[in-house]
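Researcher: Last one for today. Full complex below.
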Amino acid sequence: MKHLVQWIGLLLAFGFVSCAPAAIDGKKVGLSSLNTFADGSASTARGEAILVAQTDGKTKIIVSVTGLTKNTKHIGHVHNGACAVQGPVALVLLRLEADANGNATAETVVDTAKLVGAQYVQYHQRDLGDPAGGIGGGILCGDIK
Ligand SMILES: [Cu+2]
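Model: Here's the assembly. Have a good evening.
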């Protein structure tokens, strides 16, 4: 009986370790409009974030978005929590810079170990250092699940 318990423990431990990176690699996070743009109009932003495991304990987060206000910049984060129940910043993502058609992409490499628990990807109304002050509320959001 004691050996059976040890075996089950070993299997659980091995299973947990071997599944952790695979759970993140290749994950696709749908990004949907959230709240309003900085000018007060309804956000029309939407897109996708794809998580790709790297070889060195890092994960690349590849974000592609359409429907932004043309020629605007937006800082993004991975936050703890969910789009519906928002929490603090866990990771900073590189800014989205919308082109003249409102399209943008950004790739950020982060520590995979920081992608844990309930989290979501969010981009904000403005970029850091915007003259208007503050990054504003979220315009785009997607739960990582
Ligand atoms: Cu944020």
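DSSP finds one helix and eight strands in the chain. Helices lie at 2-24.
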